[in-house]
Amino acid sequence: MHRRTVSSMIAVVLGVFGLSGVAYPCASLRGSARIDTVVTPCPDENGGNLETTAHVVTGTIVIANGRSTPTLGSLVVELQAFENRHFTPVARTVLNAFGDSTVHTCLGPFSAGPYLGTFALVDVNGDPISFSSVESLPLGTVAIRFVATFKGEIPEISPGERARVRVYTTAIGADVPHACVTDANGDGNTDFKVKTLTFQKLVRVPISSTDVFPGPLSISICPEIARCGDGIVNRSDEECDDGNNEQCDGCSPNCKIERCGDGIVCPNQGEECDTQAGTPACQLCNDSCKLEPKCGDGIVDADCGEECDDGNDTPCDGCSTCKIDRCGDGMLCVNEGEECDDGNTTDGDGCSSECKLPTPTPTATPSVTPSATPTVTPSATPTVTASATPTATPTVTPTETATPTVTPTVTATATPTATPTATATVTQTVTPTETSTATVTPTVTATATPTVTATPDPTPTDGKSITIGPSSMEGSIKIQAGDWVNGGYSFETNFTGNITIAAQVSITGRCIGGSLSQDTLVVPLGSINYDAIAGSDWKPTGDANSILSWQGAVMAPASLCGGGELDASKGAVFSATIFGAPPGGLVTFRFKFRDPAAKGTPNTNCTDASDPNRNRADVCGASWSATKHDP
Fold this sequence. Notes:
Elements: E1 9-17, E2 28-43, E3 49-65, E4 71-83, E5 86-95, E6 102-105, E7 108-111, E8 116-123, E9 128-129, H1 132-135, E10 140-151, E11 162-172, E12 180-182, E13 191-204, E14 283-285, E15 291-293, E16 319-320, E17 323-324, E18 368-369, E19 395-396, E20 421-431, E21 437-447, E22 451-452, E23 464-471, E24 478-479, E25 484-493, E26 497-512, E27 518-532, E28 552-555, E29 565-567, E30 572-579, E31 587-594, H2 617-620
Parallel strand pairs: 1-8, 19-21
Antiparallel strand pairs: 1-10, 2-3, 3-10, 4-5, 4-11, 6-7, 8-9, 11-13, 12-13, 14-15, 16-17, 18-22, 20-21, 23-30, 24-29, 25-28, 25-31, 26-27, 26-29, 26-30
């Protein structure tokens, strides 16, 4: 007993034979067709046999050409079911020289399916021939016999019901009216004078099936066993099937859509890793299949260069990026007593080896108070022996003339000391007489070293600090050695007065390549004095493209990331300390950074006014961060 089913594959056999040469006034298509049901055992996935049924459509088409010898571009065989008083296509197969599954006609594109099939061309004896054997259509007529096998169940077609077979032929170079322009043969080029002709035939679906294949050519109607890699999504466990077993082409060798987490590393899809298996010991594979430093897992991995690991990425908490916080690490930690941190411990570069800002040099206005009022007490009691009689005791009345001469020498020091010295020299001339008068003329020389009091500018009190970030206004950039990395800020205040701002921008990220897992690049922004004006616009400028908006730039050293690239996708951190703000004084900040080379523009120091590139908005016109208000 034969069971009738309808299969999901189409096989077409074309037989070509010559008819009598008749000249037709223009191109035409006619023919005949029939349908049979064939049943045959086919192997299944379990090694047994599965009874398979197919509808086999056979027929002949005749193409007539009266004024030209066109080239056959494609053939389409279509099976139609009768539903709701209309014929509707339910299965189709196509054929051209390239074996394409879709062909283009003057009626639009036609694709094979939803049932697959095979094609074979045969001559009148049933022997196979190539498509090229029928491509050149002669002047006159040519007949083509076809056999199309539709494999699998087609619910729309039932035994004993009517069906229709329609055949489409598309030729290139037809000398006929109403030709179209399309790629008729599938070679990728546009063809002209294209004509599509159709032929259709009503058929009756057999009530019973047979195990004898009709026609002179025996064609296997057994479908291939469904498997991953056959190009068909025909198994319940398949998500895709691209017809090959290649990796990283979107469909894996086990017919699963390739995605992060499937255990296959596909660099062409942007993956750096996939699951922790195979990931370097000092790195983690995140949910986006990107490598990240292992720092932050709460475990100190000394082999990975970790000094500490407090299980978080909070800066300035004693352990930052798995390194013990210290002066010179490039991270400004005000809560740890730092006033600056330029990434080194070199004195004399604006930030001392103890991360302190230099003390401002005072301006001295000396006050000189000479102490030069010498007191002279002459000792003038001479003894006079007179040659006369009697002996006289003269009375000496010294006349003292003391004129101090003061020549102050002023040396302004932090704590000057003046010690005045007075030296009196007395010269007496005594002329004894009976009434003797001694005249004393002292000479006094006073040398004074005055006392100097220096009054310097007020020393700034402890500053207050503000931090912004990390902020990633620049997107996912990668910094390389030799890149100019620029940093800048602008601010507003609610007070008027002189302030000093010491600031920096630090960029910390994972390393791509090189010997380090992560690194930090610091852009010092110096210690700058400003005249703050309450309520004024952004200082020193609000123009993001102005050279005044950049306070510092640094060239990334060759040692960056141990010779690799710094992934700056997580952004930068801005740190500033403000000195001189009055009680209640508030400062509002925003900042920016830019690596022009990483953005695909010329490598530029945006603080260099002599570089013409710095005036380009796409080079140095970086965006501001979000505004941070003084708490």
